[in-house]
Amino acid sequence: MHDGPLIVQSDKTLLLEVDHELADDCRKAIAPFAELERSPEHVHTYRLTPLGLWNARAAGHDAEQVVDTLLTYSRYAVPHALLVDVAETMARYGRLRLEKHPTHGLVLSSTDRPVLEEVLRAKKIAGMLGARIDDDSVVVHGSERGNLKQALLKLGWPAEDFAGYVDGEAHPIALSEVDWSLRTYQREAAESFWHGGSGVVVLPCGAGKTLVGAAAMAEAQATTLILVTNTVSARQWKDELVRRTSLTADEIGEYSGAVKEIRPVTIATYQVLTTKRKGVYPHLELLDARDWGLIVYDEVHLLPAPIFRMTADLQARRRLGLTATLVREDGREGDVFSLIGPKRYDAPWKDIESQGWIAPADCVEVRVTLPTSERLAYATAEPEERYRLASCTHHKISVVESLVRSHPGQPTLVIGQYIDQLDELAAALDAPVIKGETTVRERQRLFDAFRSGEVGLLVVSKVANFSIDLPSAEVAIQVSGSFGSRQEEAQRLGRLLRPKSEGKTAHFYTIVSRDTVDADFAANRQRFLAEQGYAYRIVDAEDVGA
Amino acid sequence: MSTTAYRTLADQLRGWPDERLSRLLHERPDLATPAPHDSGQLASRAATRSSVLRALDQLNRFELCVLDALVVLGQTSVEELVDAVAAAPEDVRTASARLVDLALAWESPQGLRALSTVAEALTPGSPGVSGLRPVSTDPLPAAEIERRLDRLSPQARQLLEHVLDSGGTATSGNARQTVLPEEAANPAEELLAHRLLVPRSGGSVVLPGEVGRALRGGCTTTYDVGEPPALATSERDPALVDRAAAGAAFEAVRRVELLLDQWGSHPPAALRSGGLGVRDLRALATDLHVDEPAAALLVEVAQAAGLLSTAAGPNGDPRWIPTDAFDTWTAKPTAERWLALVVAWLESPRLPGLVGSRDTAGKVWNALAPELAGIHQAETRGLTLHVLAELPPGTVLASGTGVPSLVQRVEWRRPRRPRTRADQVVWAVDEATALGLAALGGLASYARPLLAGDRSEATAALAGLLPDPVDHVLLQADLTAVAPGPLESQLARRLQLVADVESRGGATVYRFTPGSVRRALDTGWTAVEVHEFVASVSRTPVPQPLTYLVDDTARTFGTVRVGHAEAFLRTDDEAALTELLHHPKAASLGLRRLAPTVVVSDTPIDVLLPRLRDLGIAPVVESPDGTVHVARPDLLRARTPKEHRGRAQRAVRESAHAGQVVSAIRAGDRAESTRPAAPADRLSPSGSMAALREAIETRAAVVIGYVDNQGASTDRLVEPESLDGGTLTAYDHRSDDIRTFAVHRITTVREVPRSAV
């Protein structure tokens, strides 16, 4: 019997035994086409999805390679139906091509006439296409490039886009690698993006995605529009770009609720773009304000739906998506694939962690028991009130206090969702609090103070979830959060995963109320973290500090 | 082959050694039952049409061609036969020997000859038949025919070829039949003059076999009939074929077990017609991660192997549940379980390939439907697999073209089988692939001994290819347990109790959830047992979250208790309850104290209440919302019956009903009025038919005496419309509708005067 590290299941999951001697080779071989679903300590689970296979196809792998890899590493016989399915799925990508035609402009062509016929008969496609040129090609309205790709993906015939990109307005940008240099994976990521044209780079939080963006800009040498999640993150991008590239602060504009500058490199927030006044998006013109050569989407997994629609019209420009995870809570992974591009680079978290770029983390769930009075209040509460009641128990405050005490001198973040609770905590811990109503200036000041070590303890609401770089945080204590979102968990952990001096371990505490919905949501988080391979423990509140 | 000549077939059979005779009886088993008295009876039985047809069905196309040539040549020598068949001489000799062995031909003093019934059975157009007429009794020499053919005019030659292609006979029309070659006025006369067409009685002409042969270049066919159609093949590593097939075999066994396990606890209902509902099949397919045809195959195979049957459920409706054989089957090693399934499949007449398609009446075929069987199915499967087995290891059917070529080859082997055969061959290949007998278009190495009849070698070879059962799992912090191979059966069952199965295949992924742990506690496990079990099966340390999960579930387990009671008693007076509980007469009331102030009873309230009053207690009844229910004897009232239908509607119905009755009465009257005083003579069948036909022609009404299903004879006034296939279609005055009547039940037919209608 063949003794490989991989077990191929008939439900299209692949189980990889990590302790096997061939596991590393196998991981590298299957990474291009299989999506890592979970990576707990012994057996990692990958899944074969059409999108994953098409991503691989876009990266130049063919079905034979995939089948061969599966057969080579598989321990048992590979279900025949699965192999057939892989071959069929992969053969679907690229049957249709979007090309530039010297006289007709944008053209959809196919080497497989029945496929083209099938697609032409689809109702959703009809309006996007113009005249038939010959048996194998048809004119596409230039404005429908993105919508067409999106619709074709839904039909299961993703088109390969060969129509090329506009160069955009040239602007010199260079990396100024004086006292630092790009890490190997950052360079690889930027290169594979550039060769692929457009696409998404998947790197964990703290792995330096901003620099991948900067490297891509240096390749493009053109005016760039950067879309980020919020203002604080926009400022961070700006600081980083000024520090790491030849760009000066004057060349970089901020386009947010507060400031509306359009410069060769403009950083805009999703929020301002999606602001709607009288049924129109007044800031949409930003997209056409300059002849952008590159558009960078930060945190692609959070890209709001209106931006998708706008992106559909930007298909002639190069697009770089940056994200920690392709998993979207709204399941629109397919739109990311068709509108921004296939995955161009991916590195599993644990791999990067073992290279020392992100800190190892110790995840602990602390369970507090509600006192009888609160249990009664909880039991009789309306369902929508229950989570707030459970997660805001006063018991948590004393637990937080003892946790903070057990990590003296370590920069600590306390993260929560409910403002009342945060205020209470801030009072009890005598620490500053950052919440929605805190001004940007004040936020900036507190974050700077935290980074420099002036402030050792910060209570933050969910505004801190995304894109705020607090590399010095060593302990995070989460007291409440959105309803068990996997994405939020990744972000919060990301706060802590920036490289630590002396290779210290980060601590991530979640405090939950036992026997309530709070604990149910925590179970989701626990699963996500354990699936990501983090050690996870559960302790009772009574044992904390003991 | 013996060269002795025999006077009759019976003589020949008499002269055969026992061993050759028994071979004949083996190949044509219908000759042996019931045992014939003597060779004479055997010979006559062998010559009956039905037996000959059966024997012909066993021949391949080439053998049929040889037999056909023999029929064309009449009585001839083997060497002559070799000349006449376009194939390798050695093959023709072998084939003719086989025909003799099958007693389809015998060696007469004048040479080899086919049974006369064979000639009748080989109708033109049936497989292997060349379409030549028999050779005439005194044929012209071949050279002479050649010479005459050469001298023909082009038109005559064309006509001759046309006659040959259309079966060797034609009508002569106005052509003169006796004419000299010089006087021939048209091509037909030319051919008749040269004796290339021979006149027969009734104005038809026949093209003799020898002329046909000459036209076809000396043989009965213009093409080589000896070569079977080639199989389209390609190369494949036999080890890969084996691996893929063994994988399929493992999956098939696993899925059958899963399906029967599931139906053991949640059986689907059997349809009234005996099949399995479409919805149940679809649900099963989803559960097994297969498509519906594959699911249909699995249930069919499970049934064929005797693992699945119907039994009445609690409400008497039949349901599909596993048989007790399933339990012995599960205990066996995988390879043996596979063998049981495959052997059942090979011999089963079932047609799972039809499931989901519609029959001629447009009804969907259900899996497990009793009618879903075909008499040739098992034979086709065997034949298909044997053809596959002829491919050497390493050679497989080419993808795409391979299966159609296989279909052709199988058809060549048994050309007289019905046309639906092509589907059946494709199904056989698909099903063999699904069951792991074949993969990638080639037969698995372990399937070869099975086809050859050596079952133990087949299982041994398969067992070597199957994953070894494992006795441990890997526990992980995300509360999953991965069994990196098939778990030992007992272990798998226990693990399934404490954890949910998340993914199946070569490996199995289990997930521990509060629900699954509680399930284990429900069946009597303790937390300690769960801990021990988990620790004993795991090869890795038990993760802390799992330990915590088990303890946490055990903590809340059983904190709420549920029991059954018919009534409760509550009071603020604890002493009163204590007194009641200790009252000797209260012992039969089944009282239990739950709390100082609450007692429950398993006696229903209507019994309990008077008994308590007897004991000197004055209880009041509480309603569900806690208020006191004052009981006063209810006064009984029945419901006022409702008018269900509107008056108008009822009136219409009534009048319609009356109309029917009237027309029935009138029809009866008319029948009565024409009844003759004396009972009518029974007509002979042909007489009544004639009378009815006449009525149809004249569009007249008649009164028929008709015997109904209960045997009662009635007179019916009808207007016959058509008479066909033993039934009469007629307008029946009594029922005011078109009805059909079985002619054999019509006893009398009497005319009705037109005025009476």
Characterize the structure shown:
The complex is a heterodimer of chains A (546) and B (757). With 546 residues, chain A is of the alpha/beta class. Chain A has 22 helices and 23 strands. Chain A has four domains: 87 residues, no CATH class; 66 residues; 170 residues, P-loop containing nucleotide triphosphate hydrolases (Rossmann fold), CATH 3.40.50; 185 residues, 3-Layer(aba) Sandwich (Rossmann fold), CATH 3.40.50. Chain A is 39% helix and 20% strand. In chain A, helix 16 runs antiparallel to helix 17. Chain A starts with 5 loop residues before the first strand and ends in a 6-residue tail after the last strand. Chain B folds into six domains: 113 residues, Arc Repressor Mutant, subunit A (Orthogonal Bundle); 66 residues, no CATH class; 233 residues, no CATH class; 83 residues, no CATH class; 62 residues, Alpha-Beta Plaits (2-Layer Sandwich); 104 residues, SH3 type barrels. A five-stranded antiparallel sheet of chain B has the order 24-23-22-21-25. A four-stranded antiparallel sheet of chain B has the order 12-13-15-14. In chain B, strands 3-5-4 form a three-stranded antiparallel sheet, with no helix packed on it. Chain B starts with 8 loop residues before the first helix and ends in a 6-residue tail after the last strand. The relative contact order of chain B is 0.05. At the A-B interface, strand 2, helix 22 and strand 23 of A face helix 13, strand 12 and helix 26 of B.
Keywords:
A: 546 residues; Rossmann fold; 7-stranded parallel sheet; 39% helix; globular; B: 757 residues; alpha+beta; 5-stranded antiparallel sheet; 4-stranded antiparallel sheet; 30 helices; ATP binding (chain A); hydrolase activity (chain A); ERCC3_RAD25_C (chain A); DNA binding (chain A); ATP-binding (chain A)
